[in-house]
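Re: that backbone. Tokens:
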């Protein structure tokens, strides 16, 4: 395949782009930025260790819009985890399928973006923030708008179930906007199912507004096929006395890029980010996180852990900003990794930028191998080498899983992780 310059990538994207009447200003801004900037090249600092444009060149023949695949209730039921009890939102190649979804809890409203036409779309995930946000602006056909009403506690989780099946060269572009009003509480779960092994680009943009004194948990399971290229731009605005907690479990894909931003916009905000990536084969996962403390008395906690085998590669780049007005900020960031082979690689870069003088902030990272003394200790007590290894690895990973908000989903993820690590004996 011919090597593409940035301008040629831009032209290819725009020549293949669909034409939609909805959200014209947002789409035009996306076109303008894409034409000017294209997709990130290896010299772009933010994508230094993730050559996603090169990967797209090698994998996709074009950038055509994906078409819906055939889904039915039996297929959907077969992919619900044991013990699931809540509202279900089904997506078909990036588009919300109302007829296959069910929303029964009071206090929550769900509609397609084209039906509701919210003016806030694109105000949290700003077009110029990342090239793949501008690409999503051009390519999303429809999306979903969720409003959790003021003073409502949604007792059961809301489950996003994405089904992807696209021909080579097709782009899947889910778009999600969530507004959680003041004093509300809700928990979201997310799982993506690849229905075959076809390569595709899944480019997701999620925007969440967390209102005053609202509490939101968002738990994601990423396990798409080995040929998929996945980009997630997840942007939140967190208001006074509100709490937002994210848990991301990444297990497979060809190349996965997760951009997660928490904007702590007022006093009393709390933002929590937990991530676990278990990688093997040639899977590449890049977690880029940003926490922006703008006002006094806010708190953030961040813990990402990675276990890498074979020729896999992990990237972690976490940034914490503490603005001049954000006195009395508490911010913690940690990234820990275990490498199980000589060919596995991790690039980690925790960062702090502090303009305030009365704060408590810390960050750090570790990369190493399994503790041989601990292995010896367990084997001396009758465990095989594989059992001892699996037990130690699960103890390392379990600290992240503990933060999954729904018990049934936690058990589902725990079983998957234990099977992957060989600790389900």
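Recovered sequence:
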């Amino acid at each position: 395949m011919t090597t593409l310059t940035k301008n040629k990538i831009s032209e290819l994207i725009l020549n293949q782009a669909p034409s939609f009447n909805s959200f014209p200003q947002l789409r035009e801004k996306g076109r303008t930025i894409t034409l000017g900037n294209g997709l990130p090249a290896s010299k772009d600092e933010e994508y230094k260790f993730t050559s996603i444009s090169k990967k797209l060149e090698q994998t996709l023949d074009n950038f055509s819009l994906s078409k819906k695949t055939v889904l039915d209730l039996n297929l959907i039921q077969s992919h619900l985890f044991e013990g699931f009890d809540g509202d279900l939102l089904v997506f078909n190649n990036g588009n919300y399928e109302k007829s296959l979804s069910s929303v029964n809890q009071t206090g929550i409203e769900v509609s397609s973006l084209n039906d509701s036409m919210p003016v806030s779309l694109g105000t949290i995930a700003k077009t110029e923030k990342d090239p793949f946000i501008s690409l999503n602006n051009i390519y999303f056909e429809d999306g979903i708008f969720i409003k959790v009403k003021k003073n409502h506690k949604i007792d059961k989780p809301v489950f996003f179930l994405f089904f992807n099946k696209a021909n080579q060269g097709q782009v899947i572009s889910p778009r999600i906007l969530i507004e959680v009003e003041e004093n509300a509480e809700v928990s979201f779960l997310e799982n993506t199912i690849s229905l075959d092994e076809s390569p595709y680009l899944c480019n997701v943009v999620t925007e969440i507004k967390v209102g005053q004194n609202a509490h939101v948990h968002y738990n994601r399971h990423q396990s798409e096929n080995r040929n998929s290229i996945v980009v997630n731009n997840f942007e939140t605005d967190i208001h006074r006395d509100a709490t937002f907690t994210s848990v991301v479990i990444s297990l497979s894909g060809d190349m996965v890029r997760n951009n997660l931003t928490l904007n702590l916009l007022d006093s009393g905000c709390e933002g929590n980010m937990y991530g676990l990536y278990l990688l093997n084969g040639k899977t590449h996962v890049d977690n880029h996180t940003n926490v922006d403390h703008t006002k006094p008395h806010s708190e953030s906690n961040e813990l990402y852990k990675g276990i890498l085998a074979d020729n896999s590669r992990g990237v972690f780049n976490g940034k914490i900003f503490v603005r001049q007005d954000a006195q009395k900020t508490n911010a913690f960031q940690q990234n820990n990794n275990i490498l199980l082979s000589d060919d596995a690689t991790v690039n980690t870069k925790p960062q702090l930028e502090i303009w305030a003088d009365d704060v408590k902030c810390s960050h750090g990272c570790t990369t190493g191998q399994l503790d041989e003394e601990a292995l010896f200790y367990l084997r001396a007590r009758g465990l095989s080498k594989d059992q001892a290894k699996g037990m130690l690895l699960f103890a390392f990973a379990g600290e992240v899983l503990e933060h999954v908000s729904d018990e049934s989903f936690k058990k589902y993820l725990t079983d998957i992780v234990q099977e992957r690590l060989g600790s389900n004996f």
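The longest helix spans residues 385-401. The first strand starts at residue 64 and ends at 65.
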